[in-house]
Amino acid sequence: MRASFKCMNCGKCCNAFYAQINVTVGDLIRISDFLEKPIGYTLRNFVGINPFGDPDNPIKFSYELGINMPCLLRKNEKCSVYEARPLNCRLFPYWVLVQAFVFNKKEIIDESYKCMNNLELERDKIKKYSNYSKIIGGILVQEASLTDNILYKLNIKHSLDLSENKDYKKILNKYKNKKTKHGLKEFETEKIRLAKRIFGKLKDSDIKVIEQEAKRPFLLKIIENNTKRLNEAEDILI
């Protein structure tokens, strides 16, 4: 397998409803600046509070900032904000390739993504991808912490347990005999749709809180520095 990634613009990672793309406050600021729009505009049109599954408990979700799927920032079969794309989008699939080839976890490669087909190992590429992933991952951890601090100031429910939910039990019964990959992905999609429906949409008051918090000087300084580091990190991939 050749670990040399080339986006095929298949759009699966942008369109699959079960794909979960977290967004940090830094991502929110960078996207809004790129669009030359206020943060409220980005929150109302592309980013919101979305349910993210707990990998250790399939019936639990946490509510976090995330891309509304399918991603409406994808236009003409390409990302319209590529230079300001979220950190999670920057990481994919580089962290997958590093895990697959360095730690021999080939099973995590999903070949239904066109970009993951027919890959062959090139050690120099893996080293680049590893260095890139470490930088992006470090920024992601820092900005995720800043984002969590903002979200906990909102008067919203931050977690959900579907175990006693009647609609979830109907979904569970519907897919109990569908154990194929396709069936499991449909099952995940319906769970996420249900969790999203339960939460609803951000209130205008919540959007104002996020906008105000994102304007704090100390936070803007951190994001400015991180954005410079991101631009430098992109050169690693050349």
Q: What does this protein look like?
A:
51% of the residues lie in helices and 11% in strands. With 238 residues, it is mostly helical. The protein has a 3-stranded antiparallel β-sheet with strand order 1-2-5, with helices on both faces. The chain has a two-stranded antiparallel ribbon with strand order 3-4. α2 packs across α10 (217-234) and α5 packs across α6. The longest helix has 29 residues, at 123-151. The two termini are 20 Å apart.
Produce the secondary structure layout.
Elements: H1 12-15, H2 25-35, H3 39-45, E1 47-54, E2 57-67, E3 74-75, E4 78-79, H4 87-91, H5 94-102, H6 123-151, E5 159-161, H7 166-174, H8 181-199, H9 204-213, H10 217-234
Antiparallel strand pairs: 1-2, 2-5, 3-4
Helix pairs in contact: 2-3, 2-10, 5-6, 6-10, 7-8
